[in-house]
Amino acid sequence: MSYFRGRYYHNIDEKGRIIFPAKLYEVFAEKYDNRLVMTNWEGCLLVFPYAEWSVIEDKIYGQSIIRREVRDIQRLLMSGAVELTFDAQRRVLIPPSLRSYARLEKEIVTAGMGRSIEIWNRERFDLALDKTSKNIEDYNQFIADLGI
Fold first, then answer.
1. Cα Rg for the chain, rounded, in angstroms?
2. Residues 6+ apart with CB under 8 A from 76
3. Residue 1: pLDDT band by 50, 70, 90 thresholds?
């Protein structure tokens, strides 16, 4: 089974387009169609193949909107979600609202996350990665529970 893996440094162009790294695009080509869903999450953009996103949507919409956390997650994930497609050059046009949310201006990082992809402002990504690296002991139990 193919997953999205790796960290790729590149630029967003003046029109707000990014070229998906070949290794990430290959997973789309192998397992999915040309559609993806992009939304905001924790200061970055979260990208799912449309088929994976549909499963998430069904799970969220199956919850009661009486619960505050359901409404909060719907507001964050669903209100920012846009369906996009790749062009012939593996590019995707990121809408202005999502570019603004993630502060995507020039240098960006595209990170494979298994079943999803994150798109970050380079500086914010480096800070997030550094924070996790410095606090790796906080994750020891989680890693041990995985049997690693």
1. 16
2. 39, 40, 41
3. low
pLDDT given for residue 136 in this prediction: 86
Number of Cβ within 10 Å of residue 53's Cβ equals 21
Q: Establish if 137 belongs to a structural domain.
A: no
The structural domain count of the chain equals 1
**Per-residue pLDDT band at 133 (split at 50, 70, 90):** confident
Residue 146 maps to a domain: no
Q: Write down the pTM of the prediction.
A: 0.91
Alpha-carbon distance of 125 to 112, in angstroms, equals: 13
Say how far apart CA 7 and CA 61 lie, in whole Å. Answer: 32
Contact yes or no for 84/38 (Cβ under 8 A)? yes
Checking if the pLDDT of 17 tops 90, the result is yes
Residue 77 lies in a domain: yes
Q: Give the CATH number of the domain where residue 60 resides.
A: 3.40.1550.20
Expressed as residue numbers, the domain containing 35 is 7-121
